[in-house]
């Protein structure tokens, strides 16, 4: 995820809220998600000045929702707080690195 250099603090807050949301969740898969979800902050800025945050997830929990905002919204029911979280998240994230389109050509697990 490319994050604007002056907004890394906001993105860090969003990730902290995500951890809190999953920690407090009553969904059985949430604890498994926590155990396998790591976030790396790249030390070197990209050519456009953004800082990359890499989400490494493994093992992936079958049928679990890894959407940051969906997990935050599940924990935070107040619409005003949801909007504040969305604004913080969307304001921090830069443009997508690339668009992935196309069919899967190989599943090496099979």
Q: What fraction, in percent, of the residue positions are helical? A: 40-55%
The major pleated sheet works out as: 3 strands, antiparallel
Radius of gyration: 15 Å
SSE topology string: EHHEEHH
The best one-word shape is globular
Total number of strands: 3
Structural class: alpha+beta
Mean pLDDT: 92
- Relative strand content: 5-15%
Task: Please mark out the parts with pLDDT under 50 across 5 or more consecutive residues, or reply none.
Answer: none
**If strands are numbered along the chain, what order do they take across the biggest sheet?**
1-3-2
N-to-C span: 29 Å
Number of helices: 4
Description:
With 110 residues, the protein is α+β, with helices and mostly antiparallel strands. It contains 4 helices and 3 strands, in the order βααββαα. The protein has helices at 8-24, 28-36, 68-75, 79-92, and strands at residues 2-3, 37-41, 51-57. It has a 3-stranded antiparallel β-sheet with strand order 1-3-2. Helix 1 crosses helix 3 (68-75) and helix 1 crosses helix 4 (79-92). The longest helix is centred in the N-terminal third of the chain and has 17 residues, at 8-24. The two termini are 29 Å apart. The model has no long low-confidence stretch (mean pLDDT 92).
Topology:
Layout: E1 2-3, H1 8-24, H2 28-36, E2 37-41, E3 51-57, H3 68-75, H4 79-92
Helix pairs in contact: 1-3, 1-4
Sum this structure up briefly.
With 110 residues, this protein is α+β, with helices and mostly antiparallel strands. The chain has four helices and three strands; from the N terminus they run βααββαα.
């Amino acid at each position: 995820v490319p994050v604007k250099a002056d907004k890394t603090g906001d993105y860090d807050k969003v990730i902290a809220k995500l951890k809190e949301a999953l920690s407090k969740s009553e969904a059985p898969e949430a604890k498994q998600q926590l155990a396998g979800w790591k976030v790396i902050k790249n030390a070197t800025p990209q050519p456009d000045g953004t800082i990359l945050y890499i989400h490494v997830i493994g093992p992936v929990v079958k049928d679990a929702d890894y959407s940051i905002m969906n997990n935050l919204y599940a924990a935070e029911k107040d619409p005003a707080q949801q909007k504040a979280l969305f604004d913080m998240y969307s304001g921090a994230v830069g443009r997508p690195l690339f668009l992935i389109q196309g069919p899967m050509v190989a599943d090496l697990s099979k």
